[in-house]
Amino acid sequence: MRFTIYSKPGCPYCEKCKAILEYQNFEITIYTLGVDFDKEQFYKEFGEGSTFPQIIMNDKLLGGCTDTIKYLQENNLCCNV
Q1: Average pLDDT, the chain
Q2: pLDDT digits (tens, 9 = 90+) for 27-47
Q3: What does the angle CA 18 – CA 34 – CA 57 come to, to the nearest 5 degrees?
Q4: Please, where are the H alpha helices in 31-75?
Q5: Which domains does the chain have, with CATH numbers?
Q6: SS3 state of residue 10
Q7: CA distance 14 to 34
Q8: Residue 27 carries which DSSP code?
Q9: Could you give the CA distance from residue 29 to residue 5 in angstroms, rounded to a whole number?
């Protein structure tokens, strides 16, 4: 499985998701606000008012931290967090 994380510096939810996915040894690509994209590009991709992180598994948008953890748990891809 391949995960893409759109994150921003200093975001505790971004860090939590990165840690969980790294612990599970999933393939991860991380894009960072201000380095790889700007807010305008982020909103164009995910919609105005979207929050960080936004996580994509393969080609499926999982959403933010809570939605991603829920998906991982429901599909037995992660231990209880």
Answers
A1: 95
A2: 999 999 999 999 999 999 999
A3: 35
A4: 39-46, 65-74
A5: 2-74 (3.40.30.10)
A6: coil
A7: 15
A8: E
A9: 6
